[in-house]
Write a structure and sequence with these properties.
The chain is 85% helix and 0% strand. The protein is mainly α and 60 residues long.
Length: 60
């Protein structure tokens, strides 16, 4: 049985984390601060944790 929710959640969370890291790096190069990049990373990590928890709950 495929776990579409886990796969989609993982892809979205990884995309959010990668975009947040890229934007944070670009902001650092420009010498500015980007609060929304930090929020993207935090939301991506929380989404990844949620996907793992849901995957483990439904496979128990």
């Amino acid at each position: 049985m495929m776990h579409i929710g886990f796969i989609v959640g993982t892809i979205i969370s990884i995309a959010l984390i990668v975009v947040g890291i890229i934007v944070m790096g670009l902001a650092k190069i420009k010498g500015t601060k980007s609060k929304w990049a930090v929020w993207l990373i935090v939301i991506g990590v929380v989404a990844l944790i949620s996907a793992v928890i849901n995957f483990n709950l439904f496979n128990a």
